[in-house]
From TrEMBL:
<keyword id="KW-0408">Iron</keyword>
<keyword id="KW-0813">Transport</keyword>
<dbReference type="GO" id="GO:0020037">
    <property type="term" value="F:heme binding"/>
</dbReference>
<dbReference type="InterPro" id="IPR019795">
    <property type="entry name" value="Globin_bac-like_CS"/>
</dbReference>
<comment type="similarity">
    <text>Belongs to the truncated hemoglobin family. Group II subfamily.</text>
</comment>
<dbReference type="GO" id="GO:0005344">
    <property type="term" value="F:oxygen carrier activity"/>
</dbReference>
<dbReference type="Pfam" id="PF01152">
    <property type="entry name" value="Bac_globin"/>
</dbReference>
<dbReference type="InterPro" id="IPR009050">
    <property type="entry name" value="Globin-like_sf"/>
</dbReference>
<dbReference type="InterPro" id="IPR012292">
    <property type="entry name" value="Globin/Proto"/>
</dbReference>
<dbReference type="GO" id="GO:0046872">
    <property type="term" value="F:metal ion binding"/>
</dbReference>
<dbReference type="GO" id="GO:0019825">
    <property type="term" value="F:oxygen binding"/>
</dbReference>
<keyword id="KW-0349">Heme</keyword>
<protein>
    <submittedName>
        <fullName>Globin</fullName>
    </submittedName>
</protein>
<dbReference type="InterPro" id="IPR044203">
    <property type="entry name" value="GlbO/GLB3-like"/>
</dbReference>
<dbReference type="InterPro" id="IPR001486">
    <property type="entry name" value="Hemoglobin_trunc"/>
</dbReference>
<keyword id="KW-0479">Metal-binding</keyword>
C-alpha cells in the first residue's frame, strides 16, 4: 500500500523538498559540516531531494538522472569522521523537528538515515 510508504508520509516530493531545504540551511551553519560543502547548496539539495525520494520508497528520481547512487564512493573525496556523521544526523533531526513530523515516523526515518550516515565514515578522528 503506497499510502503507507515513508515517502508518502513525509508529504511526497514537496515534503521532502521542504525537509531538505531546512536541513541544508542547518548544515550551512554547522561549523564542522559547512567547510565540507560548496557555498551554493542548490545542486546538493536538488540531488538529496531526489535521493531521499527513492530512499524512502518514492520514485527513483536520483537513479533516473545520476545513475546508481554508490553513496560511499561519492563521499570518498570528503574526510568524514564519526563526529561528522553525528553532526549530519543532528541537523536532520532538527530539520524533522522543525517540520513537526509524527514522532514515530521521525524515529523510523532517523534510524534508517543513521545506518547510511555511519556507513559514509571513511576517516578516523585522530588521522584528521
Ligand atoms: C553529497 C557530506 C551523509 C547523501 C555530499 C557532499 C558532501 C557530503 C560534502 C558533496 C556535496 C556537493 O558537492 O554537492 C556528507 C557528510 C555526511 C553525509 C559529512 C555525514 C555522514 C549522507 C547521507 C546521505 C547522503 C546519510 C543519504 C541518506 C548524499 C547525496 C549526495 C551527497 C545523495 C549527492 C551525491 C552526488 O550525486 O554527487 N555529501 N554526507 N549523505 N550526499 Fe552526503
Amino acid at each position: 500500500d503506497e499510502t503507507k510508504s515513508p515517502y508518502y508520509l513525509l508529504g511526497e516530493k514537496q515534503g521532502i523538498e521542504k525537509l531538505v531545504t531546512t536541513f541544508y540551511s542547518l548544515v550551512s551553519k554547522d561549523p564542522l559540516l559547512s567547510p565540507l560543502f560548496p557555498d551554493d547548496l542548490t545542486e546538493t539539495a536538488y540531488k538529496q531531494t531526489r535521493f531521499l525520494s527513492q530512499f524512502f520508497g518514492g520514485p527513483p528520481l536520483y537513479t533516473e538522472e545520476f545513475g546508481h547512487p554508490m553513496l560511499r564512493a561519492r563521499h570518498m573525496p570528503f574526510p568524514i569522521t564519526n563526529t561528522h556523521a553525528k553532526a549530519w544526523i543532528n541537523c536532520m533531526e532538527r530539520a524533522m523537528t522543525i517540520q513537526k513530523l509524527e514522532p514515530e515516523l521521525q524515529e523510523f526515518l532517523l534510524s534508517r538515515l543513521k545506518m547510511t550516515a555511519y556507513h559514509m565514515v571513511n576517516t578516523n578522528e585522530d588521522s584528521e
